[in-house]
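Memo to structure team: turn this sequence into structure tokens by end of day. - J.P.
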Amino acid sequence: MNALVLSGDPELVDDVRRLAAAASVEVEVAGHAAEARSRWHRAAVVLLGADALAGSPPRRDGLVVLSREASVAVYRRALDLGAERVAVLPEDEPWLTDRLLRACSPPASGRVIAVTGARGGAGASVLATTLALIAARRGLRVLLLDLDPLSAGLDVVLGLERAQGTRWPDLARLRGRLSPDTLHRSLPSTRGVAVLSHAHDRPSRVPAEALASVLTAARHAYTLTVADCPRGALPPADETLLLVPAEVRSVLSARSLAATPVPPLLITRGPAPARMPSTAIAESLSLPLYGHYDFDRHIPPALEQAALPTRGPLARLCTRLLTTLLPGPP
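Reply from structure team:
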């Protein structure tokens, strides 16, 4: 659905068009009430300029009055019309951009899967990247998020370290909503996977507000978002995969990660030096076992060439995971 602007003020209309373009939202413009009548109740939101308050537009939900100044007369008339807010420009531009996105964006349908390891070096980054690559091969629109500022970077894993595009430090001051189209167009990508990673010359943590905005936009822009997470720092996700190497110290490290209100799904990785079976690990952690794979000797040299394979035991596991975790994948 589109937004409707009712105003005869060309500068005000231009400002709205600029904000709508930044939010990838389409707007229709009416210069007078008669022109807006047929679209008044069909629009997702109506932006009524202060210059058009003299008429008698019908009341409706989703009515916002736009003004250059916060005068008593404007607020009184907005109250009479049942407007939800008087947006004073340019101060309220961030709020107005967010309101346009909320009103005009389609419902979010994308899924978020977080991946973390029981310890450093468990292989969570390789699992997350392979899962993203297999999903892209199956025709899904995929985003890979790198949430560990101290790692080598998932852009390096995929050979994108020199590619132009947005990195997390570029979003450090992000406030409010982010346009899904803007996010998708700004990211580097390869093999069907878009990547949001850290800048190697500007290591920094991911601000909570920026992460929330990116995840919201990602659910609109991508079928699947895979987040590679440092140990103990998990974002809101539909599912969390916990990768545990089949060794005693990894199982002990995993206990604190397993004891969460929403238990993660367990993935184990061989070899098992003490021949510890995956079922015993699952029983010890009281977690559902969703898969096991053995270390693939082809992966380390492939990482050096930024050419992770989409065949082998890990790829087969990721294929099964996608079939299980995503409703109706192609």
